[in-house]
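Subgroup meeting minutes
Present: P.N., E.W., G.H.
Scribe: E.W.

1. P.N. recapped why we're keeping a running log of single-chain structure predictions: easier to compare across weeks, and new members can see raw inputs and outputs side by side.
2. G.H. added today's entry (181 aa).
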Amino acid sequence: MGHNYHHRLCYLQKYGENLFMEMPAYFIYLIYTAVLTLVMVILVPGKEIYKFGLISIFYGAVIDIFWIVFIGLIKAGGYLNYGPLGFLVVPFVPPIAWTIFFIMFLYLLPDKRPWNYLFAVVSAGYSVLFSNVLANLGIFNWTFSKVIFPSALYLIWFLFVTWSYDKYGRKFVRDVIMDKK
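Output recorded in log:
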């Protein structure tokens, strides 16, 4: 029985590797966005998704498109292999993924300082790691540095989100989004 189990496991591993190798690179965008969506649906209650959705489109999609254009202009890197899932230098799926990410980010963001800023720094570190995973998968490229430039970019982005949400975003969500319900 042990030999048969091992044989099946090897077959599944080989089949999975072949499937992955034959899959177009742009499918990776769809896969990680689908996984991120599943995590969000499990982690964040539906009312909270609604609550943070609109502001997360700004913090996620809009700011990501700004960074895509900025990074492209200074030739610091960018998304690769997005195939039919993009236009000019802007892939369609990553801004959606960033919107989903910021729904979770805002849901988990602590209310009090310094914990909210520490959360932003840790989240920026996670994003540096994840962007390097995407680089290793061949769908993203950093040209200046794989650590220094992305660390600065994500720290600026996440600290801005934390500061602006604390200063203006909470009031916007409370007065504009939640009052309409």
